[in-house]
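FOLDING PROBLEM:
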Amino acid sequence: MLRCMSDEMTDAPAIPPMPPVDLPVPVKSRRRWVVQLAAGVAGLVVGAGGVGLAWGMSGSPVAKPFVLRGSLVLSDPTPTDSNYTGCTGSGGYDDIVPGAAVTVYDAGGKVVANGALGEGRYASTDSTAPCVFKFVVPGVPDGAKFYQVEISHRGKLTVSAAKAKAGTFASSLG
């Protein structure tokens, strides 16, 4: 028998306690989260597309880099062989050797590309002929009106963009 609050005995059966029940999350709150995520992703895609479209319509094409070719003529070289084919600099020109740095700067003085002098070759088989060093500088960005070229530490020489692209840059020492 069970007692009630009134201290009277009753024949009613005891009711077992109810187990805890997980209530389902309302569908409405799940939908709200999914809708907010979808709206954020859509905004991101539309925004990125707008920026890309603006860049594409700006009319400024991406310039491809070019190869600057040129030569340095050294008036008083030293032969590197007895046939007077190969030559190099010496004395005050001992920095004018194959592999010497060729640096290209833009109009603002910023380094934009690097190359090196090639092998020195006599212009003829005469021992008094000048020595010609050819060079190639790949990856020069297009778009400047002029460039500056420095061979070794000999100072910058200005060259027009047209001459730089045409491969007609030439300088001399001695």
